[in-house]
């Protein structure tokens, strides 16, 4: 398991006194979430089984409104679940980045690491664990594949927003 070579997070000097946040969402009824502070600092990660699309809509709206300094979201997925997140983000004037696994995985993982869904999910768990261990995010549990993919989606989103020039490099 390796991030592509030559990938490094840029310096955290010149961090704004008013932090900006990006929420990464692996959208589904079983949702993975990861919050990043600019430039690409993992703040927290989690996974929730929302039970239904209706419950997810309420939870998405509440969560989006509760994060002070939230400026952007990145969503992997589509359909009514992704639309619930997108609708709340539009109402708040947030920047929205939509993606799918086939896009961000190609930029973060080696082809052998995403040859099938199970391999990609196991790789994501291993990488997310390394990222969590190097972050200041509370690490009370091993991330599920949903939360792990949200962590990687969040890093990818930080790069897309220009918060970092390159993604972190990890030995796997």
Q: How would you describe this structure to a colleague?
A:
The chain is an alpha/beta fold and 172 residues long. The chain has a single domain, classed as Ribonuclease H-like superfamily/Ribonuclease H (Nucleotidyltransferase, domain 5, 2-Layer Sandwich). Helix content is 41%, strand content 20%. It contains 5 helices and 5 strands; from the N terminus they run βββαβαβααα. It has a 5-stranded mixed β-sheet with strand order 3-2-1-4-5. Helix 1 runs parallel beside helix 2. The radius of gyration is 15 Å and the shape is globular. The protein starts with 20 loop residues before the first strand and ends in a 12-residue tail after the last helix. The N terminus is likely disordered.
Secondary structure topology:
Layout: E1 21-26, E2 30-37, E3 41-49, H1 53-66, E4 70-76, H2 79-92, E5 95-99, H3 101-108, H4 117-134, H5 145-160
Parallel strand pairs: 1-4, 4-5
Antiparallel strand pairs: 1-2, 2-3
Helix pairs in contact: 1-2, 4-5
Low-confidence stretches: 1-15
Structural class, judged by helices and strands?
Answer: alpha/beta
- Share of β-strand residues: 15-25%
Radius of gyration: 15 Å
DSSP helix count? 5
Strand order of the biggest β-sheet = 3-2-1-4-5
- CATH top-level class: Alpha Beta
Rounded to the nearest angstrom, the distance between the terminal CA atoms is 4 Å
**Main β-sheet description:** 5 strands, mixed
Range of helix content: 40-55%
Order of helices and strands: EEEHEHEHHH
Rounded mean pLDDT is: 87
CATH evolutionary superfamily: Ribonuclease H-like superfamily/Ribonuclease H
């Amino acid at each position: 398991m390796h991030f592509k070579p030559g990938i490094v997070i840029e310096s955290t000097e010149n961090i704004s006194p008013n932090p900006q946040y990006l929420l990464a969402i692996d959208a589904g009824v079983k949702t993975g979430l990861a919050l990043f502070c600019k430039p690409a600092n993992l703040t927290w990660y989690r996974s929730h089984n929302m039970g239904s699309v209706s419950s997810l809509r309420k939870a998405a709206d509440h969560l989006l409104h509760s994060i002070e300094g939230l400026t952007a979201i990145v969503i992997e997925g589509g359909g009514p679940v992704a639309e619930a997140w997108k609708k709340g983000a539009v109402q708040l004037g947030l920047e929205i980045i939509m993606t799918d696994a086939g896009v961000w995985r190609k930029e973060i993982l080696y082809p052998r690491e995403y040859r099938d869904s199970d391999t990609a999910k196991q790789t994501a768990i291993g990488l997310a664990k390394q990222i969590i261990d190097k972050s200041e995010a509370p690490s009370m549990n091993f991330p599920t594949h949903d939360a792990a993919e949200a962590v990687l989606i969040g890093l990818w989103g930080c790069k897309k927003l220009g918060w970092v020039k390159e993604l972190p490099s990890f030995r796997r």
